[in-house]
Amino acid sequence: MPVDVNVLKTISIFEDICEANLHKLSSIICPLRVCEEEMLTRRGIPATNLYIVTSGNFMAFFKGGQSVTLHNKGDVIGWSSIITPFRYKGSSVALTDGEVLCIPSRKLLRLVRENSELATKLIQKINTVIQNRLPFVNGQPVVENETVRHAA
Amino acid sequence: MLGFEAIIAHNGFAMAALGISIVFSGLAVLSFAISRLYKALVLWDNRHETVKRIRNTLTSSRVRGPRIIVERSDEDQEETVRLYHMLADTLEKPFALPAFLELAVNRGLCHPYSTVNDLIKQGYIQPDGKGFYCWKC
């Protein structure tokens, strides 16, 4: 069942997007309830969905044991679904019961290809997430001088 | 009227076609039934196990009742914090959160994921900024 447009308006990643594009997005996004200990993504498998947290708490963990915990509405899980080679770089699990918005990557990519304005805005937002998590992805130790922030 | 004219006049061909189709349908159904007879016999031999399996499937697919949330007392919370602190002490500092969770699961602790989440929110488990965690860094 597609998500309501008003729900999308409350999420930071969609805040600069116009009404028309929000309607297009809402037609491809589905809310999904998750239970504690449920895995959303697994490292290495094909990345088919992008998830956006609406409630609950999640943990994304990577190859070297590094992890981030996601507690805020609008946190993104599974950005690899829109970045080549389209395989999840980390695994993610629900720490508590919650709800996420599930966006099938194929549909999102098709929408983004047809709409450059939407593409620019979404990629800008997701880039922030990628920059925050990239130090953990390859399991490499983080250099002392770098400040690593939790994904917002 | 004689010959084919008589047959046609009295719907002979139609009756013949109908008769042939009835006979062949019956033969097809019978041959199918005979080909599947061995499965029916196996099912009859294992009827008790089959009934048991169906019963188990039906009971496991029942909708679960509402989750009962038990409010923990302060003593319980203190005990939980103490237990998890002991677990954290067994790991190298800083520790990987997935490893900590796995340890809690292996120890048979109740709801380890939500408990660890609560400990993070309460500040008992803190990130070190490099993707690892420690107990009140």
Topology:
The complex is a heterodimer of chains A (152) and B (137).
Chain A: H1 5-9, H2 19-28, E1 30-34, E2 39-41, E3 49-55, E4 58-61, E5 67-70, E6 76-77, E7 91-94, E8 98-104, H3 105-114, H4 116-137
Antiparallel strand pairs in A: 1-8, 2-7, 3-6, 3-8, 4-5, 4-7
Helix pairs in contact in A: 3-4
Chain B: H1 4-9, H2 12-35, H3 37-45, H4 47-60, H5 74-90, H6 97-106, H7 112-121, E1 125-127, E2 133-135
Antiparallel strand pairs in B: 1-2
What are the low-pLDDT stretches of chain A, counting only 5+ consecutive residues below 50? 142-152
Shape of chain A: globular
* CATH homologous superfamily label of chain A: Jelly Rolls
Helix content of chain B: 55-70%
Total domain units of chain B = 2
Element order, helices and strands of chain B? HHHHHHHEE
According to CATH, what is the class of chain A?
Mainly Beta
Tell me the strand order in the biggest sheet of chain B.
1-2
Strand content of chain B is under 5%
User: What is the CA–CA distance across the termini of chain B?
Assistant: 112 Å
Q: Say how many strands of chain B there are.
A: 2
Count, helices of chain A: 4
Q: Major sheet of chain B: size, sense and barrel closure?
A: 2 strands, antiparallel
DSSP helix fraction of chain A: 25-40%
Unreliable stretches of chain B: 61-65
| Beta content of chain A | 15-25%
